[in-house]
Amino acid sequence: QVQLVESGGGLVQAGGSLRLSCAATRGVIFEINTMGWYRQTPGTQRELVASITNSGSTHYADSGKGRFTISRDNAKNTVYLQMNSLKPEDTGVYYCNLNQVGRGYWGKGTLVTVSS
Question: What is the distance between the terminal CA atoms of the chain, rounded to a whole angstrom?
């Protein structure tokens, strides 16, 4: 069973930066997959923040364009999310996702809190 381990969340002031990391461990990690970050706040559905394929194609939600950068190290099965110019509305639990051969896996989430 694939496990995703996230790190890098925390408390930051508006305008600051954070870098999230997520490593896929255990199980079988196929060469072709998509990894991504989702955000969830109380009372809302989990929403996509950014995703990246194994070949490096990226997709960003409008809210993070120009401020967030997703990247990955395929050799380490790790995905990163560099978040700059953070805003209070970026606050939430950030979940890592791995999608391969039609199946999705989720991490436990890491809390990001942006104070105004």
Answer: 40
In sequence order, what are the beta bridge partners of 34? 53, 99
Task: List strand residue ranges (DSSP E) for 26-77, in order.
Answer: 34-40, 47-53, 58-60, 68-73
| Contact of 18 with 60, CB cutoff 8 Å | no
Q: How many helices (H) and strands (E) does the chain have?
A: 0, 11
Strands 110-115, 92-100: pairing is antiparallel
Q: In whole angstroms, give the CA distance from residue 60 to residue 50.
A: 4
Q: What is the pLDDT of residues 30-87, one digit of tens each?
A: 888 999 999 999 999 999 999 999 999 999 999 999 999 999 999 999 999 999 999 9
Neighbours of 21 (CB within 10 A): 17
Question: In degrees, to the nearest 5, what angle opens at C-alpha 80 toward C-alphas 75 and 82?
Answer: 145
